[in-house]
Amino acid sequence: MQFWEFAGSFWWLVFPFIGVLGMVGNAWERGARMRHKRRLEVMHAKAELKVAQAAARGKAVPAASLPPITAPTATTAPGAASAAARETQATQLERLFATHDAVTARWLEYELDVAKIIAFPAMSDGRQPLTAAFLRAKRIADGLRPASPKARLSKEQLAEYRNAVADFEVAFDVAERDARRLRDSSFTDDERKRLDTAKKLLTVAIDEAATPAERQLAYRRVREELDGLISISDEAIEVLENKVMLELGPVAPTTTATDAAPPASAQAPVSPATPAAEPGLQPETIPAPKRPSTTPPTATWPVPSRTNGDSPGRVTHPKPHR
């Protein structure tokens, strides 16, 4: 009863109380925006630091795309603001795709290279907690990845995919560091000896100087040593087989003198006095001497006169007999 009496007497205090609540709400909203802006600045600084460290190591790793810190002002036209938002979203997706693909490529280096699988077996062991967390993050990021950078996403979908890519990258970095720290410490002494033997045989299996038989034998020994120790994917086995079965370059057939020359039985005997014909020169054929003919030559009519040569070309005709 006393409460209702107080409320009936001081009901006008509701309006100042509402104003105070509005001021508190506005202050909370401004604080939340400031905290969000600072968080974005920290994420940008971390991304730039990671890119600088990668550049110092000689690897260009694109940083994850982040939303712009400054939003478009109220003076911006609605059409220009929507175009800027679409362009920003497409740019963000392109950068997110680059980061996603870069982390996937780094993971495939451990998944397809048998030498790295032997050196860092924890990266291929799903029983390791950090490796399992990385694989889960990869599956989530792959499932949230849009079909193309031009896909239209809502702000919630874009933020979800951006967070998934960030978790994917961080989970891989943590799993990689742990795998490099562990190496083969989780194996027994006998298993480590088998791994060392597999490393040595692997160098022979992919050595171009070794013969094909030596490479094949070393490849079979590597598979035997790793059987039961490390699970190798089919893709890694295929890559290793392609390295082992190196294709030899085509060898040009060389013709020897014995192959080009006919057998001795088919060759004509050569006189020791006859010099060998030089290559490229055709032998000159000498015509056979003509034998003198035994038949007298037939006389032509009219017969030229045989004179002393004073009047050459004069023809005399015989007189007819009467």
Produce the secondary structure layout.
Elements lengths: L1 H8 L4 H44 L20 H35 L1 H6 L9 H16 L10 H28 L6 H17 L6 H15 L7 H11 L12 H4 L62
Helix content: 55-70%
Radius of gyration: 49 Å
Strand proportion, as a percent range, falls in under 5%
Poorly predicted spans = 60-77, 247-252, 254-281, 303-307
Q: Report the total helices.
A: 10
Instruction: Please tell me what the overall shape is.
Output: elongated
Structural class: mainly alpha
Q: Main beta sheet: strand number and arrangement?
A: none
Report the mean per-residue pLDDT as an integer: 74
Strands, count: 0
Description:
- By secondary structure, the protein is an all-alpha fold.
- Helix 5 (129-144) runs antiparallel to helix 6 (155-182).
- It has helices at 2-9, 14-57, 78-112, 114-119, 129-144, 155-182, 189-205, 212-226, 234-244, 257-260.
Report a brief summary of the structure.
About 55% of the residues lie in helices and about 0% in strands. With about 325 residues, it is mostly helical.
